[in-house]
Amino acid sequence: MKVTIDGKEIDVPKGTTILQAARMIGAEVAPPAMCYYSKLKSSGGYCRTCIVKVTKGSTANPTPMPKPVASCRTEVMDGMVVENFTSPEIVEARKGIVEFLLINHPLDCPVCDQAGECKLQDLGYEHGLAESRYEFERREFDMIDIGDKVKLHMNRCILCYRCVKVADQLTDGRVHGVINRGDASEISTYIEQVIDNEFSGNVIDVCPVGALTDKTFRFKQRVWFTKPVDAHRNCPTCSGKVRLWIKGEDVLRVTARKDQWDEVEEFICNACRYDHKKKSDWEIEGPSPVNRHSVISQNQYAHLNQQKLEQLKHQSALGFMKIDKKP
Amino acid sequence: MARKLLIQNDQVPGINTLEVYRAQGGYRSVEKALKTMVPDQVTEEVKKSGLRGRGGAGFPTGMKWSFLAKPEGVPRYLVCNADESEPGTFKDRYLMEKIPHALIEGMITASYALGARTSYIYIRGEYFYVARILENAIKEAYEAGWLGRNILGTDFSHDCYVQVGAGAYICGEETALLESLEGKRGNPRIKPPFPAVAGLWGCPTVVNNVETIAAVCPIVNMGGDEYAKIGVGKSTGTKLISASGHINKPGVYEIELGLPVEEFIYSDAYCGGIRNGKSLKAVVAGGSSVPILPAHLILKTAAGEPRLMSYESLSDGGFQTGTMLGSGGFIVMDEDTSIVKNLFTFTRFYHHESCGQCSPCREGTGWMEKVLKKFLNGTAQESDVDLLWDIQRKIEGKTICPLGEAAAWPVAAAIRHFKEEFLEVARSKKFVDISHYERLNKQYAS
């Protein structure tokens, strides 16, 4: 099936969603997604950041769709034409969505463990407005422990439902869900029950914001001061393929490996995540690929940045270009 | 006197019992359908009648029925949406309370047309006493052989159940209703797939409003063509209107579609004019979520033609100068009404009822309520009107289900037609007492 997204055409198999097709084309046309997670069934459709405009339904029925659609849950039709970043209407609408997501978010990034690898920071930076027009009190919840290793900081939650899907699909016996409704909705374990099983720690990895954090890592270190390396071990429960976050000789944190779209490649078990925090427990494969634009890379390649800055200064002095862009 | 098809017998004593209902000619449509027609013929009659969904959207019922997927070996369901929660709408309650058998009869006939072995009536929690009335009626129907195995000696067997919800506006959205009926959290599903393909427990399902299902009986009795002669243009048949607000005679009225709005408001047969001799300021014509219209636009269209109570005439002029027939919740406001306060009430409702699944509605409805509250406690700026406009614009059309629109449209329309009033309230800095809302909020919280 042929689909055109922002003027770029691609051939995809039947059943592909617009978002998947856009990701196949590349990051330059892929809509941001806060709740969609390709590894979890029936995820997506909630956050509405991935909305796009379908200007031509299909070759057979070219009528445009009347409203913007959630690209993560809309399957492509043959001959469909989609506008994402090229539609000013969508760019504007997305700004609105980002603003909505942020009005009740505490913006406590300076004390939040997710800072630096937070999808909401990226989203706000790339697609949001410079300042909020919201002037009221933000909703507040008490922090609660979900089990002895996971902290739920509900104030930061954007209700993407990813952790609910993990609890539903990866672990036996659903004890994790959403209670209350509207802007009073909150993620909760049913009547203070803990998630007690081998894969529960994955809720931390799928959380796009700092709502679910690893209690064994909380306040230990800013992520950009640690260095990610890929490692593996022989694990009887999971694949054992993980990412270690190292500072000096210490393994501060163990997470699953994430791909280009910040999605977990393979879910890992709690034993790998919490109980093996020595370098000697692991066979280290090498440094993890880190996106050049990520703040995590900044610290790793500080010397390169310095070199580049020197070079730019030099060029600028010669009248080539101005240093108003980040190196 | 206008023709009535649904509630013509509502004043007959004992009409809620099967005996009296049958004596008044009840259950004729079941007899006629089961004995003389094949299911597709019933669907055909409904198509010919031009009946449109009475819940609010006005989608042609016959077409909805013909979309129902009919794979072999998979059960099909009919679900009656009795979760009537739209503020200003109380017609279904009246019908079910007075003549419960009209709904049961419609359920049997419609199920026969759709080939549904089982049907459900999903009723909102606040109508628990109506649910009891329905359950009694169903019991009577079982005893008389109108429900159960081999109805009237034919091959058609049917069971009908009443399910009481917990009282949530969102469960009136058909997919949220199905989720709730399945015993889950009432969150709307993401469409497609539509219920006609995968509805209740993944099986093909038709969800219809109470009034729509009840209207199937007269259609089968009189024939689709005959029914289509009532009304005007594509708005055929009769419609129950819940009239409320500052009028002399609030209540439920059955009208023939095409009745002039002016006649409906001022005639003694209907609303009986504005209370205390005041003049008309505005009307919300179809339940709180449709755009409000000022007096001059509700009585006459922008082109100067008299406005009629019909799907087409009320929506004439789009949202710029028109509105919608919606669910028929006709709220009349006199000259003393504060549109700002009224809008706050509506918006507060949508904030309270948002399910919280998708972000624009979850966050936007609460924000709009807070901004509107500023107008009432005298702290609003003139720029807040523009802010409100911008928030509603960013909610509309971006949400999973129509609750986003339902919350955005009243705000948009109020600002469109009454902007000056908002600006005046903002300038005057006057405090409006809303302490009774605070008390209500506390009640909800407890």
Question: How would you briefly describe this protein structure?
Answer:
The complex is a heterodimer of chains A (327) and B (446). Helix content of chain A is 22%, strand content 19%.
Structure keywords:
heterodimer, A: 327 residues, alpha+beta, Ubiquitin-like (UB roll), Alpha-Beta Plaits, 4 domains, five-stranded mixed sheet, 14 strands, globular, B: 446 residues, alpha/beta, Rossmann fold, de novo design (two linked rop proteins), four-stranded parallel sheet, 13 strands
Structural summary, described in words:
The complex is a heterodimer of chains A (about 325) and B (about 450). Chain A is α+β, with helices and mostly antiparallel strands. Chain A has helices at about 20-25, 90-105, 120-125, 160-170, 200-205, 270-275, 295-300, 300-315, and strands at about 1-5, 10, 50-55, 70, 80-85, 145, 150, 175-180, 185-190, 210-215, 225-230, 240-245, 250-255, 285. In chain A, the strands form 4 sheets. Chain A has a 5-stranded mixed beta sheet with strand order 2-1-5-3-4, sandwiched between helices. In chain A, strands 13-12-11-14 form a 4-stranded antiparallel beta sheet. In chain A, a hairpin with a 3-residue loop joins strand 6 (about 145) and strand 7 (about 150). Chain B folds into 3 domains: about 20-225, 3-Layer(aba) Sandwich (Rossmann fold); about 235-335, Ubiquitin-like (UB roll) (Roll), CATH 3.10.20.600; about 340-445, NADH-ubiquinone oxidoreductase 51kDa subunit, iron-sulphur binding domain (de novo design (two linked rop proteins)). In chain B, the strands form 4 sheets. In chain B, strands 8-7-13-10-11 form a 5-stranded mixed beta sheet. Chain B has a 4-stranded parallel beta sheet with strand order 3-2-1-4, with helices on both faces. A two-stranded antiparallel ribbon of chain B has the order 5-6. The interface of A and B includes residues 47, 68, 103, 133 and 161 of A.
